[in-house]
Every structure is written in C-alpha cells, then in structure tokens.
C-alpha cells in the first residue's frame, strides 16, 4: 500500500498534463500512487494518461463519461489506497520536494492536515503565496481564527496545497458536492477541518498554481453574480464557525464571519516588478545535465553543490530568507564560533560584499549574534532547535541522495574520508 495517493481529474488537458504527471513521478518521495481520472476528454489526454500507466506501475487511469470535477475527484477517492491524499489539477505542477516536506510534517507532528505555501504563476512570472506566518502546530480553533482574517484567501479554500488523512475522509465520508458548480473545494475543506484536531502549516511552497483562462477573473464574472454565488456558500461558512466556536465567541465574531460575503480573493494576481515576484525558474536551483560518458570529479562535485543548494533554498524559504543567508547561517552553525566575513565568504562562496547584509538580517531574526573581531564585524550562530532539525533533515536527505545502496555507517565513513583528505591537501 502506498503512503500517498495523488488524485488528478483530467479534462481536455493534453497541453499540460504531461508536465504535471512528470512532476509527481519525479518526486523525491517515491512511495506514492497517481490516480488520473479522465473525465470524458475529447482531446489527446486519454492516450497520454494510458502511456504513463503503461510505463510506471504507480499510475492508475480511470476513464469515465464526463460528469464534472467533483464526480471525478470522488471516483479518485474510491480508488485511493494511500494513508494520505493529495489533490492536484491537471494544468499545474509540484516542486520535487513538496511531498517529502508534507509527509515529514504530518508524521512528525501527528497533525490531521498539512497546509503549505504555493507559487502563483502568471505567464513567465511567479510569486510565493501563503497566509499563516507561523509553523506552529495549530488547533482547529486557531486555524479558524486565521481563516477569519482572510476569508477569501485561496490558501484556505483550495485543496491542492494540502495533505489529508484518508482515514478521516473515509470515517466521515467526506466527498465533493456534485451539486455545486462554484467553490466545491472550499466546502470540502470546511467539512474536513471540522473533523481535524490539529493543522500543521509549513512555509515551503508545495505547488505551482497556474492562472488559466478558466479562472473566475478570466471569465469576467459579473460582481452581482459573484455575490450571489458567495451568498449561496455563506450558509456552509457560517455553520462551520457555529460548530467551531462557542456561542459567546460566535456572537462576538459574527461581523468578521460575515465579511466573507464582500472579501475578494487575495491570490489571484502576480504582478511583474512587484516585491516577491520572480521570473519562472529563478525560485529554484537549476540543474543542467551533462553527458554521462564524460562526467568526472568536477561534474560530481557540481551536482552535489546544486543538490545542497536546493535543500538549503527550501530552508531559506521557510524563514523568509534568501539562499546566501542560509548558506552563511549553516556555516556559522558548523563553525560554532565567531567567524569573520572573509572566512565566511571563502567557505560558502557567498561574495564578501553581501556577507554583512546577511549577518544583519540573521541577527534581526535572532539566528546569530554579532561582534567586532579583528578586521570587522563577525557572526556566531545562536542555538535554535527548529533550524537544527531542518539542517539535520537536509543533511540526511543529501546522504540518501548520494548513498545508492550504502548504509548509514558506510556513507558517514566515505564523507569523513573525503573531508579529511581534502582538508589535508588544502592546508
């Protein structure tokens, strides 16, 4: 039985579904099944799905007459066998470490739901989006309080940035309402959260959400019609808070709850040149593939450096930092003492001209202390259990990536041997 079941409804998605499927099958986390529900597609989608099913045993394809996205997702749930469930849309894709991050979070905290940040993609631009600025394990009531602050935020309403427990879905027979043509995923989430005792937010982006012509904004829906649609959903939203809050708290919050009717979606736009917006591809560490026959020690070291930077980049995003900042911090952690800007630059490859800015940023977050040593400002790492666990997870992930069948002791021996040999020759 796989640990994670991915469920993807597919309707006339031949242009993008291949990218989505590949992003799932190429996940660092391999213990999964991918259930592709062809909802009566009229284009080349069915053939694409069948080809992937023939090539990879983790892929299951269901062909059915067109019945809508809710019916397709429900059919996917019937076929699912995983411990956890992720829902994806056929024209989007996911980062290669997203499932690993979500499964790790749900297993380590015991949460009933994991909710991650995401990338909002518009053309060649993207921006990281999120709503909860903490990675603290939340009660249902605490999660509901955050939701009240941004009732129309995609972060809460969509299903593709979340990891669900299938046992909860089955115990309470939580399914998508086929009678709804608008925000059926939002209603699904409200019902699930009612039965979730704890929710774990993570700041790592777990999804690339692509703005398509089918979005509400692209359809130019009349504001009056939009209010009518939201009014039809309000009874679900209101009842959710009646169940979550006690009577006194519900009365006190009725005004905030009612703001759902006039709130606009906060994640619909990614604007070029605005803070946080990047060109697609700049958000991750690119890897260029060399000719395997000509690979040498230089290529091997290059791949290891790129892999290291990818893992460090994930930690950086979790703490609203940039990659150079987290590389500086990781070196200071291992050094265990005050280090000069020149030493940090030599050991991390971060230009010395940017070290000062990184040290000041890390100091403001409480991750390092600063002092004047020798030629200038120096920094030293401050013990932080959360960061140390993230660094340890990244190191273990790197070891698994390089192990190729070796056990923990063998990997450690090889690493120590290489480090000692290089240190001796670089004196």
Topology:
Blueprint: E1 4-10, H1 17-25, E2 32-39, H2 45-55, E3 59-64, H3 69-79, E4 84-87, H4 98-109, E5 113-122, E6 125-129, E7 138-139, H5 140-149, H6 154-157, E8 162-165, H7 166-171, H8 184-194, E9 198-210, H9 223-244, H10 247-258, E10 277-279, H11 297-318, H12 323-335, E11 339-340, H13 341-348, H14 352-364, E12 368-373, E13 376-381, H15 385-403, H16 408-425
Parallel strand pairs: 1-2, 1-4, 2-3, 5-9
Antiparallel strand pairs: 4-8, 5-6, 5-8, 6-10, 7-9, 11-13, 12-13
Helix pairs in contact: 8-9, 9-10, 11-12, 11-15, 12-13, 12-14
From the structure above, extract its key features.
single chain; 3-stranded antiparallel sheet; 2 domains; 427 residues; 13 strands; alpha/beta; 10-stranded mixed sheet; globular; 16 helices; Spore Coat Polysaccharide Biosynthesis Protein SpsA, Chain A; Arc Repressor Mutant, subunit A
Could you characterize what this model shows?
- The chain has 427 residues and is α/β, with parallel strands linked by helices.
- It folds into 2 domains: 4-261, Spore Coat Polysaccharide Biosynthesis Protein SpsA, Chain A (Alpha-Beta Complex); 292-425, Orthogonal Bundle (Arc Repressor Mutant, subunit A), CATH 1.10.10.
- Helix content is 47%, strand content 18%.
- It has 16 helices and 13 strands.
- The chain has helices at 17-25, 45-55, 69-79, 98-109, 140-149, 154-157, 166-171, 184-194, 223-244, 247-258, 297-318, 323-335, 341-348, 352-364, 385-403, 408-425; strands at 4-10, 32-39, 59-64, 84-87, 113-122, 125-129, 138-139, 162-165, 198-210, 277-279, 339-340, 368-373, 376-381.
- Strands 1, 2, 3, 4, 5, 6, 7, 8, 9 and 10 form a 10-stranded mixed sheet that branches. A 3-stranded antiparallel sheet has the order 11-13-12.
- A hairpin with a 2-residue loop joins β12 and β13.
- α12 (323-335) packs across α13 and α12 packs across α14.
- It is globular.
């Amino acid at each position: 039985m796989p640990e994670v079941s991915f469920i993807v409804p597919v309707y006339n998605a031949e242009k993008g579904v291949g990218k989505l499927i590949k992003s799932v099958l190429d996940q660092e986390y391999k213990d999964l099944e991918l259930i592709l529900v062809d909802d009566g597609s009229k284009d080349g989608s069915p053939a694409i799905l069948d080809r992937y099913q023939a090539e990879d045993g983790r892929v299951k394809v269901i062909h059915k007459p067109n019945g809508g996205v809710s019916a397709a997702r429900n059919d996917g749930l019937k076929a699912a066998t995983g411990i956890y469930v992720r829902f994806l849309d056929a024209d989007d894709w996911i980062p290669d470490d997203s499932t690993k991050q979500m499964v790790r979070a749900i297993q380590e905290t015991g949460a009933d739901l994991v909710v991650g940040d995401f990338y909002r993609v518009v053309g060649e631009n993207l921006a990281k989006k999120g709503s909860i600025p903490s990675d603290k394990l939340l009660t249902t009531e605490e999660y509901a309080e955050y939701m009240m602050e941004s009732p129309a935020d995609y972060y809460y309403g969509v299903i593709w940035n979340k990891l669900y427990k299938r046992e909860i879905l089955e115990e309470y027979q939580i399914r998508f309402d086929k009678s709804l043509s608008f925000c059926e995923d939002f209603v699904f989430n409200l019902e699930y959260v009612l039965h979730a005792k704890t929710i774990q937010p993570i700041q790592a982006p777990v999804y690339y959400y692509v703005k398509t012509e089918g979005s509400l904004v692209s359809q130019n829906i009349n504001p009056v019609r939009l209010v009518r649609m939201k009014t039809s959903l309000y009874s679900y939203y209101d009842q959710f808070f009646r169940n979550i809050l006690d009577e006194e708290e519900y009365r006190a919050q009725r005004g905030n709850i009612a703001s759902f009717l006039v709130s606009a979606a906060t994640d619909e736009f990614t604007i070029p040149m605005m803070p946080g917006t990047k060109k697609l591809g700049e958000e991750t560490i690119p890897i260029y593939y060399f000719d395997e026959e000509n690979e040498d020690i230089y290529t091997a070291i290059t791949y290891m450096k790129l892999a290291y930077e990818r893992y460090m980049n994930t930690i950086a995003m979790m703490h609203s930092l940039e990659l150079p900042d987290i590389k500086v911090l990781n070196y200071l952690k291992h050094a265990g003492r005050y280090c000069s800007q020149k030493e940090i630059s030599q050991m991390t490859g971060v230009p010395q001209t940017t070290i000062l800015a990184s040290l000041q940023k890390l100091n403001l977050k409480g991750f390092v202390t600063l002092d004047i040593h020798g030629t200038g400002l120096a920094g030293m790492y401050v013990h932080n259990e959360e960061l140390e666990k993230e660094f340890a997870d990244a190191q273990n992930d790197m070891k698994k990536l390089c192990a190729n069948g070796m056990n923990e002791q063998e990997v450690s021996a090889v690493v120590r041997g290489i480090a000692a040999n290089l240190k001796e020759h670089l004196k």
